[in-house]
Design goal:
Helix content is 2%, strand content 44%. By secondary structure, it is mostly beta strands. The strands form 3 sheets. Strands 2, 3, 6, 7, 8, 12, 13, 16, 17, 18, 19, 20, 21 and 22 form a 14-stranded mixed sheet that branches. Strands 1-4-5-14-15 form a 5-stranded mixed sheet. A 3-stranded mixed sheet has the order 9-10-11, with no helix packed on it. A hairpin with a 5-residue loop joins strand 19 and strand 20. The longest helix is centred in the first third of the chain and has 7 residues. The two termini are 40 Å apart. About 5% of the residues have low confidence.
Length: 481
């Protein structure tokens, strides 16, 4: 948003950038390397997200003899309405890398982005040209049964099973597409839309990927009172779910439902001064490639499957002081990971990209406007894994009038081969998470399995009820890592 009121929806014309039919306030972002702040606004994610969730739930608890049986069903209806988008932004960006103010013949004479900006030498440019509103829909249905069985006065067993079905996301008007990984053909749900690449085909389902029926989640547990002072507890459980993705990673962000422009500039090399662009040219003329915007899901993408298990002992040292020591583990499978489906097979050789000569999206594609050639092709796959193991201890002192002192200590290790979708401040992380992480980073919560190794956490907490307000308490907490 233009808070100055100077630029409005004519900001690019005010500063001299060619940009017809500007619909957003401000002017195109100016990305300047060399530690300088960027100017302008790329206008990313301009538009609203409407997210409706309708829940239908029914549970039943039945106590009979030594068993307490719980069972239930749940159906969730998701509605996501949003404009298609990508990372370029609707005003886009002009970037100044310093390539035109350096000497490519010398290793110690690199350029400066600020100098290129003053000289009006643009090294790259990208913007979102057109976008449409889409409405994705999904049902998630599940059922469970669980029994808490009092086997003896000192032993309680827990057995349960949950099954869930996550319907593949569909778009209300079939504005969905994918790429056939085997052939490179662009495919669409329902019918081939106007503006689709020449030679496009049809998906076998409305979602353009297949349903998965393997979300079976068992649960087992026990609690055993070994003596008046000692209790042993253990449990195992599994959860399964499809991970959420940003709107620009869903299969609605595909040509022609979104159109983008990327400007390639020939930068200087020894003996070649390069071919610079100017800000006045904006996103027109020169070597401009418009149109081809694709995301890919494998046909049999799977939901994440996470298994959790623990074994703990708790001992009453005194009537008010107790010590708990436990082992906690978590194994994740089919975690989403992101990669370049068109990664070079030979380092430095763009012609070795798998789809370089593909008849549908290669350099000589049937429809040249959607050629990706040797450029990257984002694929979202359920190929990664995670592993968390930890020792956790809790020392708790309960005094009179509800006052409680708690000290927690944990020592754990978390590993994963997925770098995630966004950059992480971790040594060794690369696009697509294709490296092994060898680093130390502190992690506080076991649910956030970052690419980390060993971590320790020490926390202390004091709490007591507030006598003036029913149900209230006062807590003080300190964490040291």
């Amino acid at each position: 948003m233009d808070q100055t009121g100077v630029f409005g929806n004519k900001g690019n014309s005010v500063v001299g950038i060619t940009f017809p039919n500007q619909a957003y306030q401000g002017f195109t972002s100016q990305g300047i390397s060399g530690g300088l702040s960027s100017l302008g606004n790329s206008a990313q994610d301009n538009g609203s997200l409407t997210d409706n969730t309708y829940s239908y739930i029914d549970n039943l608890t039945w106590q009979h003899g030594k068993s307490t049986l719980s069972l239930g069903v749940q159906a969730l209806r998701y509605q996501n309405n949003y404009p298609t988008s990508n990372n370029n932004g609707f005003l886009g960006s002009l970037n100044y890398s310093g390539a035109f103010s350096g000497n490519p013949s010398l290793t110690n004479a690199g350029g400066y982005g600020g100098a290129d900006f003053v000289l009006d030498r643009v090294s790259s440019a990208a913007a979102t040209l057109t976008s449409i509103n889409v409405g994705q829909r999904q049902w998630r249905a599940s059922g469970f049964i669980n029994d808490d069985y009092k086997a003896t006065p000192h032993l309680t067993l827990n057995v349960g099973l949950r099954y869930e079905y996550d319907q593949p996301w569909v778009e209300s008007n079939n504005k969905t597409g994918n790429i056939n990984v085997a052939t490179g053909q662009v495919i669409y749900a329902g019918k081939i839309p106007a503006g689709a690449p020449v030679g496009s085909g049809l998906c076998s389902t409305r979602a353009c990927y297949q349903a998965n029926y393997s979300q079976i989640m068992p649960r087992l547990g026990f609690a055993y009172q070994a003596s008046d002072r000692l209790v042993i507890r253990g449990g195992y459980g599994a959860t399964s779910f499809f991970e959420g993705n940003s709107s620009n990673q869903r299969l609605t962000s595909i040509t022609p439902f979104i159109q983008a422009v990327n400007v390639t500039v020939v930068t200087p090399t020894p003996g070649n001064p390069g071919v610079p662009r100017t800000a006045e040219q904006g996103f027109t003329g020169g070597t401009v490639s418009a149109g081809g915007t694709f995301n890919v899901y494998p046909q049999h993408i799977q939901p994440a499957y996470v298994q959790e298990f623990n074994l703990t002992t708790e001992y009453a040292i005194t009537r008010s002081l107790s010590l708990q020591i436990g082992y906690v583990g978590e194994l994740g499978q089919h975690i989403e990971d992101y990669g370049n489906l068109n990664q070079y097979l030979v380092n430095g050789d763009p012609t070795s990209a798998p789809y370089y000569n593909n008849p549908f999206i290669g350099v000589n594609a049937i429809d040249p406007s959607v050629s990706i050639g040797s450029n990257s092709l984002l694929i979202t796959e359920s190929r990664a894994a995670s592993n968390y193991q930890a020792l956790q201890t809790v020392l708790r002192e309960r005094t009179s009038h509800g006052l409680e002192f708690t000290v927690n200590y944990s020592y754990g290790k978390a590993l994963t081969n997925s770098a995630g979708n966004y950059s992480v401040n971790t040594s060794g992380a690369t696009f697509g998470g294709r490296v092994r992480f060898r680093t130390t980073t502190t992690v506080l919560r076991t649910g956030a399995l970052l690419p980390t190794m060993y971590a320790t956490t020490l926390a202390a907490r004091v709490s007591m009820p507030c006598p003036s307000v029913m149900g209230s308490s006062i807590s003080l907490e300190s964490i040291a890592w």
